[in-house]
Amino acid sequence: MDKKSNYRIIDSQFWLMKVLVYFLLATLFSNLLFGQTTGPEFTVIPLGVLGGGDESNLSSYMVAAGVSDNFVCLDAGTIRFGIRRAIEMGTFRTSESSVMRENIKGYLISHPHLDHVAGLIINSPDDTDKAIYGLPFCIDILKEKYFTWKSWANFADQGDSPALAKYHYVLLDSSLETKIVGTDLYVRPFLLSHASPNLSTAFLIRNNNSYLLYLGDTGADSLENSSRIMSLWKAVSPIVKLHALKAIFVESSFSDEQPLNRLFGHLTPSLLMNELNQLAAFTGKNSLHNLPVVVTHIKPSEKDAVNKIKNELASKNSLELKLVFPEQGIKIEF
Amino acid sequence: MDKKSNYRIIDSQFWLMKVLVYFLLATLFSNLLFGQTTGPEFTVIPLGVLGGGDESNLSSYMVAAGVSDNFVCLDAGTIRFGIRRAIEMGTFRTSESSVMRENIKGYLISHPHLDHVAGLIINSPDDTDKAIYGLPFCIDILKEKYFTWKSWANFADQGDSPALAKYHYVLLDSSLETKIVGTDLYVRPFLLSHASPNLSTAFLIRNNNSYLLYLGDTGADSLENSSRIMSLWKAVSPIVKLHALKAIFVESSFSDEQPLNRLFGHLTPSLLMNELNQLAAFTGKNSLHNLPVVVTHIKPSEKDAVNKIKNELASKNSLELKLVFPEQGIKIEF
Asked: Does the beta-carbon distance from B79 to A118 stay under 8 Å?
């Protein structure tokens, strides 16, 4: 081997090193850049956060992919008043009507109890054409009980004649992901039990490789004689382990003082933490460390309920979840 | 006749005159006293005053006999938020829960559209036992569509099992006055037409010899091909002539700019004034002079709707009615 060929080997080794260094630097800069410029995977604007009787603040959460202006509404208890509050908070800079008509691209309804649909129905005369997504049990009740010409004009595309067809019912299938038209989001539904035999739904929302899980009202598996929450945890545990699940929205309607026989298909802090420990049993405790758990549907009829429930949850948070208490009109990013 | 007997006659005439003077003075003082100390015949506290999509301010009016603390609620679109506003305004000095549970003795529902019943239904879990009064068409829809265990638990005493029987349905009869239990009020219902064939109700409320008339949503007779408002005016014209009718609550949902084929069973200022002129044709114009007409159900979705409707009504007020625009939580006395 002559001197020249030796140089060639050194040259080639040098070239390889150079490529490696460039690659590492590129990766490093890309990560730095990525960390600095990548926005959230999900933007959530709560339009209503409470259970119970306050008509101005009932369950409804606008969710967008990243920082998009195109939202789907998860439940629709309060719409108009929630948008007004969001505008007052500076979260939106347009009109109430424009947010409802232009920014909300569709509604995902977890279950048809009035406190989860009243805002949608009451505002339907002023709304634009869009889809209402739900499992068949839920859409059936919207058809039979609300958009009926008896309790309200039929603004949907099925049910009692004439169907005005402003809203298009889209039946979800538990075994499939469904695209949310007008957004970059996809949804897969899971059945929940809410004072058996009443049903409710959890929605697993996907943006690219990131997920957000929203549970509608639900009782604990133990009290509902059900394994629906367990099945949900099994299904989502792989994405939890990969840290692809960015947040869980789940209810804690009552404090631990509420008697177990008066829960009406709802959770308390203890029951919620029990269920989340079941999830940890699948994923390992570390996978849940710092996972945002957004606590929904607190019933304010109980005196000082919000603080009581906050304290009870904090005292039982051995999983070190990041507990989030949403406020009407204030944006949350995940 | 001797001199003495002459004196007796003069004495007796004098005595008669004295009695007459005392009587006239007593009557005068009594009237002055009466005018100063007699309170109102009706106290009304609006819990929600608008039509349209604002979940926090939908039709609902608490009405009491005189200054009693015992109210009946005319419609129940917004309950909890309206009570909160009334407390903020100093109208009530107790808790939200106590006003709903103790001061509201029953609900009179004009028609079962969601914007007239949502507050009642959503707050039913926290309410006390009481009656829901309505015409059969209305109670039937409450039974079939709302308190069904599908859209809401059945807190009423009829309909889908189990009937929890917190609420007692009372069927009204158009030919009868019905006592509002827990108050000194009586009610007689009159059918209205609200986008035919949909029905609605006017309630003629009586306290002693005074009356208050509340019309639920209604279209104009001419556009509804109906004579229901005409029949109502005929029935109430005797009490209007006696000035025993203290106020009329009636809707003007849209401004005069709304096309007639897009009224959906509602009134505009022109249509409302036409109808009131029909009443004047029965009673004479002078009988309506200064009669309080409380304008309800303005739909705020139209830009600046409230001012537009106020101006249109004022410009057409040749009857010199006392136009009243109710505000949420602020007491009105009649």
From this structure: no
Structure tokens that stand for B114 in this block: 């969601």
Note whether B114 and B131 are same-domain residues. Answer: yes
> Once rounded to an integer, what is the mean pLDDT over residues A273-283?
98
Give yes or no for B164 touching A (CB within 8 A): no
- A302 to chain B, closest Cα gap in Å: 10
pLDDT tens, residue by residue, A294-312 = 999 999 876 788 999 999 9
Alpha-carbon distance of A27 to B143, in angstroms, equals: 65
Farthest-apart Cα atoms in chain B, separation: 97
B184 vs A301, more confident: B184
Q: How far apart are CA A311 and CA B8, in angstroms?
A: 94
**Interface membership of B118 toward A (CB under 8 Å):** yes
Is it the case that residue A56 has pLDDT exceeding 50?
yes
Do A128 and A214 fall into the same domain?
yes
| Type and span of the H or E element at B130 | strand B130-134
Residue numbers in B near A56 (CB within 8 A): 55-56, 81
Q: What is the ipTM of this complex?
A: 0.88
| pTM, full prediction | 0.89
Q: Do A115 and B122 touch (CB under 8 A)?
A: yes
Task: Answer yes or no: do A75 and A18 share one domain.
Answer: no
List the domain range (segments joined by +) for residue A12.
Answer: 1-38
Verify that A20 and A158 share a domain, yes or no: no
Report yes or no: A330 at the B interface, CB cutoff 8 Å.
Answer: no
A318: number of Cβ within 10 Å = 11
